[in-house]
Design brief:
Shape: globular
Low-confidence stretches: 1-34, 166-173
Oligomer: single chain
Distance between the termini: 44 Å
Structural class: alpha/beta
Order of helices and strands: EEEEHHEEEHH
Helix content: 25-40%
Largest sheet: 7 strands, mixed
Number of helices: 4
Number of strands: 7
Length: 176
């Protein structure tokens, strides 16, 4: 009996990319696997910079400035693209608009970045579901990820002060 995926379409794309060239890139879009030329079934894409470049068709030797161009190109296929840039923040790209830079939240000190990308995605979705716009949700996600990297491991201590309340929702409230 082989391994069988049991994914359900959720409208969110998860992007995984390995560091070695000989390992395939895996992009999940509901039940389907996507490749750079495919039509996505999801409406939101949250890749890191390397995955965004790969999906946009850029290969080795690309200048770093192409991340903005890649985000804009991906936004022609996905209605909303949020590219994580680590300590440089994020880019929010929407169809028909120039990508918007989201400033990073600076941690007091970086101890361990394990889990920061996963937390960014979870915090972005949380803020989005609470009514924040994409730029505000990305700012909130940056603040949460910055809080995490100040601690060792992907699980912060239980006595960590409250998570940031950095996003203002379109309904006038705060993401908590």
């Amino acid at each position: 009996m082989g391994w069988r995926p049991r994914w359900r379409p959720t409208g969110t794309v998860l992007v995984w990319q390995d560091l070695w060239e000989d390992v395939a890139h895996l992009i999940l879009t509901g039940y389907a696997f996507a490749s750079p030329g495919s039509r996505p079934t999801a409406r939101r894409l949250l890749p890191n910079a390397a995955a965004a470049l790969w999906l946009a068709g850029f290969r080795d030797g690309h200048p770093a400035g192409d991340v903005r161009q890649a985000a804009a190109g991906l936004a022609s296929r996905w209605p909303l693209v949020v590219v994580t840039l680590g300590e440089e923040g994020a880019l929010v790209a929407r169809q028909g608009r120039e990508p918007e830079a989201v400033a990073p939240a600076r941690p007091a000190r970086v101890v361990d970045s394990t889990g920061a990308g996963d937390l960014f995605a979870a915090a972005f979705v949380h803020a989005w579901l609470e009514g924040a716009g994409p730029v505000e949700a990305a700012a909130y996600a940056n603040a949460c990820a910055a809080r995490l990297v100040g601690h060792e491991g992907a699980r912060p201590p239980l006595d960590l002060p409250a998570w940031p309340r950095a996003a203002t929702t379109s309904r006038g409230g705060s993401v908590t």
